[in-house]
Amino acid sequence: MGLFTMPSLGADMEVGQLVEWLVAPGDVVRRGDVVAVVETQKGAIEVETFEAGTVRRLIATIGQDLPVGAPMALILAEGETAPPDQPAATLPEAAVHAEAVQVPPPADLPARTARTDGAAASPAARARAQALGIDLSQITGKGPGGAILLADVEAAALSATRPAKAPRAQLRPAPGAEMRRAIAAAMTRSKQTIPHVYLSQTIDIQDVMDRLTAWNAQRPPAERILPGAVFLRATARAAVDVPQINGHWIEDAFAPARAVNLGLAIALRGGGLVAPALMSAETLTLPQVMEGMRDLVTRARAGRLRASEMTMGTLTLSSLGETGAEAMTGVIFPPQVALIGIGAPHVRPWVAQGAVAPRLLITMTVSADHRALDGRLVSRFIAAFETHLHSPEEP
Description:
This protein is of the alpha+beta class. The protein has helices spanning 123-132, 150-161, 177-193, 206-217, 227-241, 286-302, 307-311, 375-390; strands at 2-5, 15-21, 28-29, 34-40, 43-48, 53-58, 65-67, 71-76, 114-116, 119-121, 196-204, 247-250, 253-256, 262-264, 266-267, 273-274, 277-278, 305-306, 315-319, 338-342, 346-352, 355-369.
């Protein structure tokens, strides 16, 4: 019997709301098929199944809030027989009120809420409260059934340090406030638990941009390539050369990834940020990278990303685009071990071929997890990035 459960769709996710079933009892599904749509703090995510079989029963109902690990459906593999119909409550119980942990699918790490002193709290929330000296009985949980989640503890700690403010009538959350809250919690955990180290390099891209301009001039707008695609492909190829940067830190050890599922940080129009992955980016040509990048941006802003794209990233690139600050230093998305930040290109004096000339430059900064990487490895990655940047297959 295969119990299909609510997956973790990011390190900042604790609960998801089921908004649509795309299968019905009796449907045959294959590995990778989209079976449901779940609403999270970062928008609607298409959830895939990682097991082939036949849908026997839909357990969760539309509109239901489900913690990570909660049962959603019963999917039987070929040759399996279902037990007699029974209430969902008698099925094997999944992680009720589980604390979300981002891991590569299809693995789930269910964890029951601890219950002492009359308070129901996730293990991560309880551990954080103990570290901060916070009494859980004084916190009102916002999780399912009133369970206390990690975000509730963080909010209580923050409010305790704020000066009291006079009450204001009819305060309304700003647009995107829930997403900002989720991002704040995830990034705070990242900075508190990951020993970040940063290495930067200024890179001359004048020749790259000249070739790109010539390439685009001969093609219609739909086939033109943006600089971001060039950066993505150089990053993916460099990760093949330095595999120690591509993977996850899990259970106090680095787990290298078999493919470069390259996350792309995308700013949403309503505010907030998501970083879906371009799967197996190292195998794609430059036009294919551009096509994949365009598709991810379109679906991210439409709120139609897939669960695998949100959870299977092995390395992330964040670029400021063609305008903005010269450099950026990013925060790592756990359990990944590095984030690549690229500032906007700027024209600056530069020594080229023995003479000072105006050249278009970028500043690349690698935020690395010092548990998995050191300066030597990151420097090798930066050198490999620059090499692939100046010698792409196209243009």
